Amino acid sequence: MPQEQSNPSLPVREDRPEKAPARRRASGSRLRSVAVALAFAGVFAGGYLAGGFIRFAQEVAQFSRAPGIERADGIVVLTGGALRLDQAMDLLKNGKASRLLISGVNPNTNANTLSRLTETDRALFDCCVDLDYAALNTVGNAEITDRWARARGFDDLILVTSDYHMPRTLLEFERFAHVPVIKPYAVARADLWLGEGSVPSGKGIKVLLVEYAKLVATRLRFAAGLEGQTAALSDGTRPQRKAS
To answer: Taking the model in full, what pTM does it have?
Structure first.
């Protein structure tokens, strides 16, 4: 029987090791590296946000325990709570400023209603209070306040709003350089704090978390160079006007 002889002119196929398992191992190693990096990034971001929230809560607590305030050219109070308006009116009555702006008033609310709610003589509204119906949010409050201060020639203002709302409000107001001095006057809600106001209650923690998220979003918007959403209606649509 003839035997098969090898032909030296033909290429000889050599058995090579399988490469697929090695590729799978390399791919798995990369995925594990990415997963570890993402985990570290998540831990870092979580720690940063948690630390930021603690600092935010401490800052709010300090605002709520602030001492008495010195006189200024004007007072601006942001609507959103009856206590804010009451304390702003008390500041005006006590001579802490010559004029008050109530910013963000509901269009269905007039000076008579506010006079009754605050138990204030209507004559004080007629002489010394301006109502702003144009501001739609905190950005709008800052815009309208800037216009009001320029029109009145005011260089320093007392800013009245809730303690938890104060950090974000000051951040928005910093965009307007016309008013060089803003004196914060924070209104504290008793149901948001325990004891002497240094530790938030369960309800207070929820309120602070929501406000902290808004503060972080505002900082990111500023870092990205973005302007806020439409903050105030045009003067011709719903003008700022004196109480009447």
So the answer is: 0.74
